Amino acid sequence: MSLLEVSDLSVVFPGGRGTLPWQRLPNVRAVQGANLSIRASESVGLVGESGSGKTTLGRAILRLLHPTEGTIRLGDFDVTGFGRRTPRAYRKAVQVVFQDPVGSLNPAMTVRDIVAEPLRLNMGLQDEALDERSAELMGLVGLEAHHLDRYPYEFSGGQRQRIAIARALATTPELLVLDEPVSALDVSTQSQVINLLERLQRETDAAYLFIAHDLAVVRHVCQRIAVMYHSRIVETGPADAICDDPAHPYTALLIASIPDPDPAVQREKTSRRRALGRGVAGATGAPPVDACPFAARCPHVMDICHTSFPTPIATAAGGEVACHLHTTGPMLGGRPLSELDPDTDEA
Ligand code: SF4
Hints:
Helices cover 31% and strands 20% of the residues. It is an alpha/beta fold. It has an 8-stranded mixed beta sheet with strand order 6-7-8-3-9-10-12-11, with helices on both faces. Helix 3 packs across helix 4, helix 5 packs parallel to helix 6 and helix 9 packs antiparallel against helix 10. The protein is globular, with a radius of gyration of 22 Å. About 1% of the residues have low confidence. Bound molecules: iron/sulfur cluster. Iron/sulfur cluster binds next to loops. Iron/sulfur cluster (SF4) binds next to loops.
């Protein structure tokens, strides 16, 4: 049974005025027809390049913006049915860690005030109980109780992200939205924070929506992955299956972009990436609503890809893929995408 259920969700931003008085900019379709589910205690990665809509989808779940269409349910909450105010119980149940630990922590507040705020407002703690829980949260994220009396500027980037995680865990949330939580950190600090997040999930049983552009990081942390491209979720599935045998050409391109320490594997990946990404120069502007969003870059593109967005179908690995290759193209023969040669297969 799912904890979070996102169904047919779309978010469209109005275009507004251009630089000239009579100019109107087109609406921006940030998310289109997104379906996503997360089970209790599960960690799901939402992957895609900048502008794919992954952060917008996360913000809709957090109620930081209102979707244009579709529904979001979390347990008994009908999130899209809320009025102007978000119920306190929902704010307790869903928390967020943002990418930038500097911008997300108020520099004028001590760490004690930052961590205690949700404990006071959402959990009703005061005095001794408040101090005890604040110190406990610091211990949970690998910091000391005496750090509570310092200011955010006195900490490194990794420590600041630990403080942000402590604040997010203060309400014992059922779902933690992690929006690029390690992208702003250096590589060694990234692995420490990732290990911390993995340990915390085992200890707290919170479900994670891990939003990131780095598929290698997401594979390490998550059990399932959803891949977004240009406002659409194009593939979902178990993390290992997505990374070892991608069903969608865009997922294959993302995987070919992950560096490999073995020079032979890296050479093979580079040539594969060149083949898969050769259409990138033609990929400008928003794709038509009814087309596959990857059509301008896809080496396997067919006529139907320009006029119809593929209906997602089940994959053998237990996920879904939205690609005409799997319904009308050479994948009908059951050949995995890794065996398709973009230079010879019928486009
Ligand atoms: Fe999209 Fe068609 Fe390429 Fe599949 S084959 S990714 S539907 S352009």
